[in-house]
Amino acid sequence: MGIPQGSCLGPALWNIFINDLLQIDFGNSVSIQAFADDLIIMMKERATYLFKETSIGPLNIVNKWIQDHRLEINYDKSCYIIASSKKFSHIPSLRINNHKITHSVNLKYLGVLIDSKLTWNAHLNYVKDKINKV
């Protein structure tokens, strides 16, 4: 059972399937976006010491939805960045189902490298390296 991969109806069925997760109201500080089976959760917080506490609720809700729908999180592909122009002395540790989520300075989403400073530097270097290999 599940969504048939490679079928014409697959993407439409997946969109219907995941729609209720995307409709959950987490308030103004949390937003969820999805493309195919890639999910990104964006959270807004003033200080890193508040970030871990703020993230627990939304991560637990998303995790419960995933478990209720018999899906699995790929922990090897899961990571988070803290986007800010400031430097932080403390990076919070995030866990889902007792799995540590890796902190990274760059996040690749839909082929675009997003860096923690929200500049295009990491992505432009990535594209430049790919072009130089051709």
TrEMBL record:
- Give the matching InterPro entries: DNA/RNA_pol_sf, RT_dom
- Which biological process, per GO, is one annotated for this protein? DNA biosynthetic process
Xref: Pfam families: RVT_1
Please list which residues make up the signal peptide.
none
Q: Looking at the record's lineage, which domain of life comes first?
A: Eukaryota
Record-annotated Reverse transcriptase domain positions: 1-114
User: What's the protein name?
Assistant: Retrovirus-related Pol polyprotein from type-1 retrotransposable element R1
Q: Which organism is it from?
A: Caerostris darwini
- What is this organism's lineage? Eukaryota, Metazoa, Ecdysozoa, Arthropoda, Chelicerata
